[in-house]
Amino acid sequence: MRAAKQYLTYVSAGPFQHAVAEALRLPDTYFTRLRDDLRAKRDLLADGLTRAGFEVFRPQGTYFVTTGIRPLGERDGVAFCRALPGRCGLVTIPHAVFYDHREQGAPLVRFAFCKRTEVLQDAVKRLAGL
């Protein structure tokens, strides 16, 4: 418990301190299952995006798979994201909105994989039709 108290001093916001304290009480198996589940979902989506023709940057520590759209003949991520719902019923986030120099992020978009496996399987099928 001493380590938990020591760790809590590094967390700045009050509500986070309570959340961290609760998380530290969970068994290691909880985190192992969470890690394995998210890794499987990441791989499912990343593999599907690769098959659909995207340039895929497989992440190590986020809920998003960043992709390049140039292999699809696209250059403008914002336009691509606006058109995607009509093309296959999916949404994604353009990276340009995170850049000071938007043109640097223009050919990149990201997809979230923190979803139910069935949702990701359906998304992969829809993306195959691009």
Write up this protein.
The chain has 130 residues and is α+β, with helices and mostly antiparallel strands. The radius of gyration is 18 Å and the shape is globular. The model has no long low-confidence stretch (mean pLDDT 90). It has six helices and four strands; from the N terminus they run αααββαβαβα. Helix content is 55%, strand content 12%. It has a four-stranded antiparallel beta sheet, covered by helices on one side. It has a single domain (28-128), classed as Aspartate Aminotransferase, domain 1 (Alpha-Beta Complex). β1 (55-57) and β2 (64-68) form a beta hairpin. It has helices spanning 2-8, 14-25, 28-51, 77-88, 102-105, 117-128; strands at 55-57, 64-68, 93-94, 108-112. α3 (28-51) runs parallel beside α6 (117-128).
**Structural class, please?**
alpha+beta
SS field, number of helical segments: 6
Unreliable stretches = none
Identify the strand order in the major beta sheet.
Answer: 1-2-4-3
As an assembly, this protein is: single chain
- Radius of gyration, in angstroms, nearest whole number: 18 Å
Looking at CATH, the homologous superfamily is Aspartate Aminotransferase, domain 1
Distance between the termini: 52 Å
Order of helices and strands: HHHEEHEHEH
> How would you characterize the largest beta sheet?
4 strands, antiparallel
